[in-house]
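Question thread 4412

I'm putting together a teaching handout and wanted feedback from people who do this every day. The idea is simple: show students a protein as raw sequence, then show them the structure tokens that encode its fold, then repeat with a second protein so they can compare. Below is the first pair exactly as I plan to print it.
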Amino acid sequence: MTSTHDTQTAAMPTPGAGALMLHVPVMSIARSLRNPRKHFDQAKLQELADSIKATGGALQPILLRPLPESRIGDEQQIAKAEKRERAQYELVAGERRWRASQLAGVAEIPAMIRPMSDADALRAAVIENLQRTDITKLEEAEGYRELLDLGETTAEKIAEDVGKSRTYVFNVMKILDLCEEVREVLRKGDIDFSRAQLLARIPSAQLQIKALKDITRTDWQGEKPSYRACEDLVQNEYMVRLDRAKFTITDASLVPSAGSCVDCSKRTGANAELKKEMGRADICTDKSCYEAKSEAHTARIVQEAKDKGHTVIVGKEAAELQAQGYNEKLLGYRRLDAIEDSPGDHPLRKIIGDQMKAEGIQPVKIESPRRKGELVDALPNETVLRLLKIVDGQAKASEKVAKEARQFSESKKAQAEAKAQAKFEQAWRDALLDRAWNTLNAEQPPAFNLDVHRYLALRSVKSLGTDDAQAIADVLGFDRVGAHAALIEYAKETVNPDFLQLLCIMQGDSRATHNPYNGTPNEGLMLVAGAVLQERLQAEIKEVKKAAADKHLPKIAPVKPAAPKADLPLDPAARAGESRAKGKAKKSPAARASAEPKTTAAEASAAIAAALQDQESGAAAAAQGDDAGPVAADAAQGLPPSPAAADVDQAVTHDAQQSAPAQTAPANDGQDSADAGTGAADQAATSQAPEFHSGDLVRVKAGLKGTTGRPRKECGRVGVVRSGHLSLIVEFGAGVGQRAGFEPEELEPYTADPIVGKRVRVLNPDSAHRWQEGAVAALTAEGWKVEFAGKPGSVSKAATFETKELESLA
């Protein structure tokens, strides 16, 4: 069987009118010199040969004509050189079958032989090949051209014969305007027909080759430009619009050899098909000719300017005057008609034009750096400044000056005043900063107050990313939706903005992947945690590492625990650390209701807040001193957790050894018994301390001092004991910043003494009115009726409370 490409024969001449059907020796056939098909795919040719060999020969006849007399002489020489008989026939159609038959080793091939003229033979070959699916557009166009060159047909007749439109034939033939280098690229398939048509619009072979490189250039991803990008590139870089020309397009004398653009065949309007394709009639497809006319136009106007006495600067000298950037300003010159070069609200020509005429000053003609062939009027800077001073003096001395000159003078005065005002505004601010700084150093007033810290906290919150804002919202117990806005409002209202800022610092440096260019990894987290936890830092790190390892790392066989050590008494600081550490293991009701450690995180933050309350300003000083700094740095540089919990313990132990300074163990001189006595005393004191439970109202004892020796700011405040901690956490309001940790002996029970008409505050965190203040309206059987003020003009809200839910206010 034969290829599917060889089954269409309806348009071929049929037997008759002298046609013969014979089996012809394949070696007696000479290929046609006019066959439109120039390329034969060797792989497909071999497939056809295998099919012919399998079927014992071609099943479809080829078309031959007797060998023309003009070729007999050449064929005799070829046959003599190849030691065979001269060819008797010339191939008209079916070259693929003829070539495949030779590959298959078939001696004869069925053929239809018919006397035909050169024109008839070429027409039959073209028509037969056009009905093949694998013929290229270039081969098709070359076939049309050969038919037209014979002079025995027309484009309309060809279109009729091949069943195409006249427009189609001309569009295909446009590809023949390509130079041979670009045609070869098309034959190889490196560009497609549509892009080749774009290049065919360019009349210059040199520009075609340049444009070919542009449209086949790949980007950093290896992608070639799209068809639309190629079309834009060809139109913008290799064609020009005549309606934007600086010269007169009807002037045939500008470049006599080119003539008028209107009558030029390279204008899209001269070709109906090209005009339709390009969408405009005024596009010049010969950019070289356009540029030649532009240069001729520039030369003409330059000569005209010189004849009038102007100084003219063009070409390379003009290009050297181009300023940096995308503006059109000129170095050393100011343009007379550009508002950008004027100090006033009008172009320079309007302001100094009369003075130029009075002095007989001619503008300098400079070629535009952005628009070749266009000359702009300009003057040297020094000349412009001199004329402006004269005009300004005239405007001040007399009212009889041009309106533009008067406006320039007034504008100049306004600009000077605005400049002086701007300097004044900045100067007093700079002076105020200097005085405040000098006073701060000399007198050291308490300037780092609540408002300043709130300002810093607000800046920290506003700079948070979405993830960090949501994470902090989780810690504070806020909704993740609208977390940023909620945190901003919280920063404006909280009485402890310093705590919020510390929380932002820790969150910002809490990423496991945090690795700054300078400084310690997680420096902010370690610095704040070290200042808060102090000597408990390493123990806390060990505990949280172990918990994280148990949850996230693969489990291995447990290590046999070491023998328990003797239960030695602890000093108060160690007991406090142990108490808080154990307290963290317990969960509040909210934590037990959720599998996620959200409440646990909030309680951990509360513990941090409590320790900060204990230390106040002393914590910040410790964080910057010799003790806290190494602890935080060493903790950040500790060994990473290993896959097993036991390994984590070892790693944390290693951290602690690195961060602790080397010490020599003192001799045992009775210290053990001293410690034991101290522990017994502590236990006795603890047993005598009052016992508090979750929900109890307490008041912080007066005169209570922190570790720095300064009174604690919670002294005298009333709050509610929160659950889940062995070291008591007292809540004074909403948010982490309103919590602090205390020992039982630092607190005393509190019972409100409400008085009708006096103000109270609701301490019950579970109430809808929690932390709100109101006035006692009456004592009822259900309890104290408290009214809360609403918005102006609205009805006050009221609710009833028990005495234990209230705090009496002065």
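The second pair follows. I'd like the answer to focus on this one:
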Amino acid sequence: MAFLTRLGALLRSAWPWLRIPFWLVMGLLFGFLLPYTLILNARLQDRFNDLVFAVPTRVYARPLLLEPGRAMTPAALELELTFAGYTPEGGGKVQGSYSKNGSRFVIASHGYSGPDGGELPHRIRVALGNGQVTSVVDDTNNKEIKSIHLDPARIATFYGAAQEERRIVRLDNVPPLLVQGLQAVEDRDFKNHIGLDFSAIARASFANLRAGHTVQGGSTLTQQLVRNLFLDRSQNMLRKVNEAILSLLMEAHYPKSRILEAYVNEVFLGQQGNQAVHGFAAGAEFFFGRRLEDLRPQEIALLIGLVKGPSYYDPRRYPDRALARRNLVLQQFNETGLLDDAKMKAAQASPLGIAANAQLPHNRFPAFMQLVRAQITADFDEAALRDGSFSVFTTLDPAAQLYTEQAILTTTKALGKRGAAAQAAAVVTDTADGSVLAMVGSREPGEQGFNRALDARRPIGSLVKPLVYLVALAQPSKWSLASIVDDSPINMRQPDGTPWTPQNDDRQIHGQVPMLDALVHSWNLATVNLGMQVGVAKIKGFLESFGLQNVNPSPSLLLGAVDLSPFQVAQLYEYIAADGHALPLVAVRGVVDAKGQTIKRYQVKGGEGEYQTATRLTTWAMQQVVNSGTAAAIGNSGLSWLHAAGKTGTSDSQRDSWFAGFTGEHLAVVWMGRDDNKPTGLYGATGSMRIWQELFRKLPTRPLSPTLGEGLEMAFVDPQSGKRTDPSCEGARQFPFASGYVPESEEGCFWQRIKGIFGSGDAEPAPAVPSNPTD
């Protein structure tokens, strides 16, 4: 009591001197510091309460279907797995890994959720043989699996102005070693302090004073998070005061678990171009090409080590620094009991293990992504795609895309000067449902800018001919592949009054020829004469039924005087490849929101099928183009087993080289030409067709059936008269006909010989076709 009395007397005597400082402090406290703290508190709560990290929309390839009988090669499967982020490390025992033994694979999948359902994680054994999957077996119970999908590769991200790559994880899904190791290295007293660790600050200050420069930091994880979320990197007193106040407020408002989860997802770990890498999950993909859950202790240690200085310890630029930092972190793991001696030494002895090709998913396939964006923006605006945390599942087939890019590079290089001056574009689709599996808009893979596959409209040349013949064959009472057409000179005036005198590429006149031969050898004069009889307006209308506009109304249309993009050509040829079903070409399968709910599904609804008999006749004729016509190089090569149907195309003066061809599973349309529209010196068969061949040497696919389709029947015909004849007659050839439309009038061998003696008055037989036809 006496002490209090003496203290009161002392204060009363000192008050005259303390009064002014006291009121100054009170004024500062209540007039500035308290309101300022309230302002910071409001800012903190607004930011942190709404801290749902803006995850940009992710874009995925199609899930890989594995089932017995599906076309697949070991090289293609390994390419698919690698592109989807699978690694041989783990040997198929941990998720996201695989092992390979010849044509046998063990794959541990991640599982996924998509618009068509999804798959749980599985460990499977896949056996391949004869270019297809022979078996799929569940490795855990040894039971055969009818079909299974592997999780799709992420191929792109829809970004806004801030190019920050995040892959959000919840704290429960973070490896325990990372959670505990982060605290052991960066903030050992995290669970106990109030946002500021005064003992750590004192230790760091003493160490720095003794060293004469900064050697140790005393900031907590909370302070680091505050800096990342609210503050700049300046070093001044006001920033330090703000950091301290915000850290105290954050600890007062939020539990440690939420602060730690925010830190795990927010921490800056590196830079890829103009993309900032935020969060340990994104860092795992960026440096190791794997998911955070699959990382080993030494990899977790490296990511934690990078927190101190992502640029200084960048393992790609400064591997020695990164290795030393990682091993120091591993030692700290050992000191805090997280790793025993043996595990620490094994981890320290391991290499950095940075994946050479690991990178953040970015718009690797700009041409394909342009199509995706065009098809999806009808339902989602840019803001929704940028900030909606959506997952867009596309139709892209990584193997088809990468093999197409490689085929273009290989072929253009092999063509020398002609290839060096030319550009190229290609579209690959699924013949069954119109899915766009690959799109290349430039000879340089990944080149941003002009997308020639979508936007370059060039004359298609002879690619129009199968469509001309299809329209004719849709009238089976008038036309068949055995019908005689006139390959003779043409001299006419077009609607604009200009004269038009087309010629055959071989500069020959072939006279009266079967329609089949005219298409197989791409004879211009026969095609024009046929098209004029069928009606240019009818052919124009057929093309416009596919959505084409301003189709050339003149007879030159019959020889391909219509400017189309490779994508538009693919739409036309998809009709033939899909057996007469009009299928829209789609690049998007569905959209899933952040909760895994499907909010949009894009389903292809094909028509019932039109002119299927005519389409099957056209397909058979196009197979003969590959067997013995302008695309005979395919039939004479190791690809003859595909029984492919195809057509070459060359525009005037060899400015554009085209090829369109399909198997039982894939359609590919390829264009080559120069951006300045100068001649390339390439025909369809010497340019684009070579790219097509290079693609299908690697792409797993099913062959096209060489047998007649339903509704067709074969019959022997005299090719000079188009009439039915006996198989034993000289020159008799088999042609397919629409059932019920086989010519009834037969011409026996006797009358054929009589005509041979006295002359029939018919045109002379066609001369031999040049040995190297081009178009």
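Top answer:
Good format. For the second protein you could add a caption like this: The CA atoms of residues 531 and 558 lie 6 Å apart. The first helix runs from residue 2 to 49.
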